[in-house]
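Protocol step 4 of 5: obtain the predicted structure for the target chain.
Materials: sequence only (see below). No template structures provided, no constraints applied. The aim of this step is simply to have a reference model before the mutagenesis design in step 5. Sequence pasted as it appears in the construct record:
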Amino acid sequence: MDATDAVEMVRQALWVALLISAPVLVAGMLVGLVIGFLQALTQIQEQTVAFVPKIVVMAIVLMITLPWVLIQLLEYSHEVIANIPAML
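Step 4 output (structure tokens):
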């Protein structure tokens, strides 16, 4: 295993991490923007108002995408394990 193989493995790991975290983070960001917009319209400046909807939506998105996340992690794990002999 040389440096390019190691860099490629780290790149793939970062890509998988970004891919599996994106749905939850995007959902939280969108809910935060909508709640922030509604707070600006109604002039309610309470920080806890935005917290509960974000947590609920992020939990729902996580439950919905969990099978896909597990598939992505399993595929990456199988690829890494299959490449172990080439690393030695």
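Step 4 remarks: The two ends are 6 Å apart (CA to CA). The CA atoms of residues 10 and 48 lie 38 Å apart.
Proceed to step 5.
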